[in-house]
Amino acid sequence: MGGFMQPQGHVQVFSRVRDHRWNPQAALDAPRFQWTRDLEVSIEPGFSEVLYADLERRGHRVTRAEERSITFGRGQAIHALPAGWCAGSDPRADGQAVAG
Q1: DSSP designation for 60
Q2: Distance CA 15, CA 46 (A)
Q3: Within its chain, how far is the Cα of 49 from the centroid?
Q4: How confident is the model at residue 100, as a pLDDT?
Q5: Is residue 32 part of a domain?
Q6: Tens digits of per-residue pLDDT, 29-53?
Q7: Which among 5, 26, 27, 53 is least surrounded, fewest beta carbons within 10 Å?
Q8: 3-state secondary structure (DSSP) of residue 36
């Protein structure tokens, strides 16, 4: 992840791992959103329709992306476990998690 999306993507992936106890691959696979400016938000497919309607009801201008893409960041993650490691690689980019 880099540039404008970097802090937004980091928070979304980290929250899914830390707050929701998802493994790194699930957190990287999940749809993301991107605040662009003011009340403008871009959202990847995969969120509940209720979310889109609720944001619009609150005055946000929502742009629905047609597909998941690197526009919403990309990354790899490694999570240390007591007995080893758990890793993931973002499907939005080339890469894979491999044990050595």
Answers
A1: -
A2: 17
A3: 17
A4: 66
A5: yes
A6: 999 999 999 999 999 999 999 999 9
A7: 53
A8: strand
